[in-house]
Amino acid sequence: MPTQTARGPGRPREEAARSALLDATAELLLEHEDPGRVTVAAITERAGVARATLYRRWESREELIAEALDSVREVPHIPDTGDLVADLEPWLGPESVGDDPRTHRLIRIRLTQSLGNPELRRVYWERYIRPRRRPLLDRLRAEVDRGGLPAGTDVEILAELVAAAAYYQFLVRPDDGRALDRMRRALRLLLGQRGVDGDVPAHASGTVRRPGRFDADGDG
Fold it and tell me: What dihedral angle (degrees, nearest 10) is formed by the CA atoms of 45, 46, 47, 51?
């Protein structure tokens, strides 16, 4: 009878292949800045991994690219100290993405390329943006519950406005060292102003339904 060769541990080998594929994808994205030029053949050749190994973990090239683009970030922890602005600053500030210029470039590539690739945008939203939003939504709901934000505040819209303040500083304004200060001021304006609860302005006519709070497991 033929002698069976003992197999080594599978998980370390799988994790090594996964890391190699993610690193290769990130390197190619940084080189080309165009996901269209980051082919499966180029990725597997750079990583030294078989194509079948890639498809065992990711169903499509877009899923791999989305994970590679997000591999530089983690789902943030947002504390609840009672100071909402202070609690959200780490979620928005430079420490949320680190100081590595490669990280900043990958985030910019993801944002710009998603505009022209609906499938990449869908995958990134479902797999990465929605999980990252949940801590923010939970923190905003806690603030509503304790009375720090008006009852009936539409936390979904407020969360998008908070994120938009950070994206604007990151994508539009030049880096002058004052981005965090501007984000902090924008946060205080957003979280302190009236109107975030969907109230109708005094000059408006007709009846408008006030938006209710969303469940934490809903569409956030």
Answer: -30
Tens of pLDDT, residues 86-116? 888 777 655 455 556 677 777 777 777 777 7
pLDDT, one tens digit per residue, over 123-153 is 888 888 888 889 999 999 999 999 999 999 9
Q: Select the CATH number that applies to the domain covering 72-192 from these four: 3.30.450.90, 3.40.190.10, 1.10.357.10, 3.40.718.10.
A: 1.10.357.10
Distance CA 183, CA 82 (A): 19
pLDDT of residue 52: 93
Kindly state the tokens that stand for 3: 């002698």
| Angstrom distance (rounded) from CA 113 to CA 117 | 6
Helix (H) / strand (E) containing 138: helix 130-145
What is the distance, to the nearest Å, from the Cα of residue 46 to the centroid of all Cα atoms in its chain? 26
CATH class (in words) of the domain with range 17-62: mainly alpha
Nearest alpha-carbon partner for 22 in 60, 59, 54: 54
- Residue 35 is predicted with a pLDDT of 76
pTM for this prediction: 0.65
